[in-house]
Design goal:
By secondary structure, this protein is α/β, with parallel strands linked by helices. It has two domains: 174 residues, Rossmann fold, CATH 3.40.50.2000; 176 residues, Rossmann fold, CATH 3.40.50.2000. It is built from 15 helices and 13 strands. The strands form two sheets. A seven-stranded parallel beta sheet has the order 3-2-1-4-5-6-7, sandwiched between helices. A six-stranded parallel beta sheet has the order 10-9-8-11-12-13, with helices on both faces. Helix 2 links the parallel strand 2 and strand 3. The longest helix is centred in the N-terminal third of the chain and has 23 residues.
Length: 367
């Protein structure tokens, strides 16, 4: 970007959906130039307090400014709180002499966008979801550098995909299949259903898997199931009476190998999940989380429309649906191949590299 090592600010806090792509971008920037200085903005309330240091980056805190969803006392104090957070973000930007900032939405990003604009520091907005939040809707109006994961989510945005970890973006499922199945204690023959619902798990997915496990395994399918922390005890209890081809874990730490071992996923439809599953070409039955503004259904819709999966309503997911809709697909190799190719054709593997190029371009515009 400039003669000296580049200095980049990254704002992505609150939820894993904001933090993970932010850190994946940071990893790509560092991979290209280890001398780059990276400042990660966050607050003391979000998951970034643990996730950012764990990935080897220093977290710089600004005051949290959550946006009230109804009229209350917090709404009237919003201008003051936003002003204080913006002032602090600007101090950091100017003291660190940042060349460029990239934000991923959430309540961390609005003060950083405003501070960057006031300090005349170019900034990039990245939107991972099909339905953007207010932070990125505001930020996109203040910069010409706007990236999106889903076409049409923001005005004047370029679809660059979502930054993925290298172990996902470079994954060859076929080449790693044997290794992956050995890693999880799976046999090499027969289809594998990968079921997961995030780090805490998903009760509806868990229940449907447990209720159908015997019949699914009797059909010759192995199940690799991430139960999640909230239902770990119930998962352990089920393991005592489960079929031999049912393989539960509390959490899957090697998602790259899980994707390689699997023939199909049964999963939520968060932006990162959809981006990863599509990028590696894994067919999926998406179960959108039934809260919020329905963004998870919108996240899954494009890859499903491309032929890479199907959507099942959370309220309708049960044993019968798994047996009637998911199991027949798993038993049809041609359908799995067709859906996998469609998913891979829609997904974007090099989102981190593409976004890094936009960040570089924005940084150079300051000269």
């Amino acid at each position: 970007m400039v003669a000296r090592p580049a200095r980049v600010g990254i704002a992505g806090g609150g939820t894993g959906g904001h933090i993970e792509p932010a850190l994946n971008l940071a990893d790509e920037i560092r991979r290209r130039d280890p001398e780059t200085s990276i400042v990660v903005f966050g607050t003391e309330r979000g998951l970034e307090v643990e996730l950012v240091p764990d990935r080897g980056y220093e977290l710089t805190l600004i005051p949290p400014v959550p946006l009230p969803r109804r009229i209350n006392r917090d709404l009237f104090s919003l201008p003051r709180r936003l002003r204080d957070a913006t002032s602090r973000a600007r101090e950091i930007i100017e003291s660190a002499e940042l060349d460029v900032v990239c934000g991923f939405g959430g309540y961390v990003s609005i003060p950083v966008y405003l501070a960057a604009r006031r300090s005349k520091t170019p900034f990039v907005v990245h939107e991972a979801n099909a339905k953007p939040g207010i932070a990125n809707r505001v930020g996109a109006r203040l910069t010409k550098y706007v990236a999106e994961n889903y076409a049409g989510s923001l005005s004047h945005a370029e679809r660059l995909g979502c930054p993925l970890r290298v172990d996902i973006s470079e994954l060859n499922r076929l080449e790693r299949r044997s290794e992956a199945r050995e890693f999880f204690g799976l046999t090499q023959e027969g289809p594998v259903l990968l079921a997961f619902g995030g780090s805490q798990g998903a009760a509806s997915i868990n229940r449907a898997v447990w209720d159908s496990a015997q019949e699914v395994c009797d059909a010759g399918v192995q199940i690799l199931h991430a139960v999640g922390a909230r239902q770990e005890d119930e998962g352990l209890a089920f393991r005592e009476r489960s079929p031999a081809d049912y393989h539960p874990l509390t959490f899957i730490h090697r998602m790259d190998l899980a994707y390689a071992a699997a023939d199909m996923a049964l999963c939520r439809a968060g932006a990162m999940t959809c981006a990863e599953v599509a990028a590696v070409g894994l067919p999926a039955a998406y179960i959108p989380y039934p809260v919020g503004n329905g963004e998870q259904r919108f996240n899954a819709a494009p890859v499903v429309a491309a032929g890479g999966g199907l959507i099942i309503n959370d309220a309708e997911l049960n044993c019968e649906v798994v047996l009637d809709q998911v199991l027949p697909l798993l038993m049809d190799p041609e359908a799995m191949l067709r859906m996998g190719l469609a998913a891979g054709g829609y997904g974007i593997r090099d989102g981190a590299a593409r976004l890094t190029e936009m960040v570089s371009e924005a940084g150079e515009s300051r000269e």
